[in-house]
Design goal:
Elements: H1 2-8, H2 10-13, H3 21-24, E1 27-28, E2 31-32, E3 40-52, E4 60-72, E5 76-79, E6 83-86, E7 89-91, E8 94-103, E9 116-119, E10 133-144, E11 147-158, E12 163-175, E13 178-189, H4 191-197, H5 202-208, E14 218-231, E15 236-247, H6 249-252, H7 255-260, E16 264-277
Length: 278
């Protein structure tokens, strides 16, 4: 279970990666998910992702994320972008239930990705590490035709003790066999998250040479994300996903971002998944 929680939370460390959920929550390796379907299914794959080395970085890095998805019909799900959750409510376009994710934190030398292949940044020198955190909470989602709105609220334990709220709206369309999703999203966090990732205390200031900074809670980021899923057959699919986000004022005004990073964050990735039943 610890392994599933860790794998399911890669998207929490890479906000753009969560956009794949818009397509793959509606399909499994290219095949539409039957709401009456029961039994366990597993999708495995890989996803190379080009993204900022850490949230707020101006340096890019390439990571290769393992993509593991486990579903029990349309009831239980565990995946990189969606976390580990239960559709306790699933009727008339509504879904709601408990949700758990893990945020891997940040390493002073490697940045924010535990699966870094190449690239990186020295912008975190003197800032120390941020430990991993479990995030527990819930979600509510509503679908109306091609539109989907989703809100997640989670509370962190460990590397940060903050409350995080993720909201997104997406529009789904088809071009032949390709399923396309696009829409805006935003994240709001409480002060402990800002302190952990963008605050600078006296010791960090002395070690890094950056000025001290104590941010408030508020808007962490806002932007737009999109994905295109192309089924290869009934068991496999390729997903292209991208996002463009901008950090909010509290994070963006941190000396860490102003002097060593940038507020605009761009990500591009492609994933392959193969599905089989248990």
């Amino acid at each position: 279970m610890r392994y599933l929680l860790a794998i399911a939370a890669l998207g929490a460390g890479q906000p753009c990666f969560s956009q794949t959920a818009d397509t793959q929550s509606a399909t499994v390796a290219g095949r539409p998910l039957d709401r009456g379907e029961v039994g366990w299914s597993v999708t495995i794959g890989l996803a190379p992702v080009l993204s900022p080395a850490w949230q707020g970085s101006r340096d890019m890095a390439l990571s290769i994320f393992p993509d593991l998805r486990v579903n029990y019909g349309d009831v239980i799900f565990a995946s990189i972008p969606e976390g580990l959750g239960w559709n306790a409510v699933n009727t008339n376009g509504w879904k709601a239930g408990p949700l758990a994710k893990v945020r891997f934190g940040r390493d002073e030398e490697r940045g924010g990705s535990p699966f870094l292949i190449t690239g990186g940044s020295d912008g975190l020198r003197g800032m120390g590490n941020v430990a991993a955190a479990a995030e527990l909470g819930g979600f509510v989602e509503k679908r109306i035709g091609p539109w989907r709105g989703r809100l997640e609220v989670r509370r962190g334990f460990g590397g940060h003790e903050a409350v995080i709220a993720d909201g997104a709206i997406s529009y789904q369309m088809r071009s032949g066999r390709t399923i396309i999703n696009v829409g805006p999203r935003a994240t709001v966090v409480s002060k402990p998250y800002m302190d952990s990732y963008f605050g600078i205390d006296a010791i960090q200031s002395q070690r890094s040479g950056l000025g001290t900074y104590s941010p408030k809670g508020g808007l962490l980021s806002y932007g737009v994300g999109g994905s295109a899923l192309r089924p290869l057959n009934r068991q496999s699919a390729i997903t292209l996903f991208t996002s463009l986000d901008r950090l909010g004022s509290e994070a963006g005004h941190s000396p860490l971002v102003r002097e060593r990073g940038r507020r605009v964050q761009f990500t591009l990735g492609i994933g392959y998944g193969f599905r089989f039943n248990l």
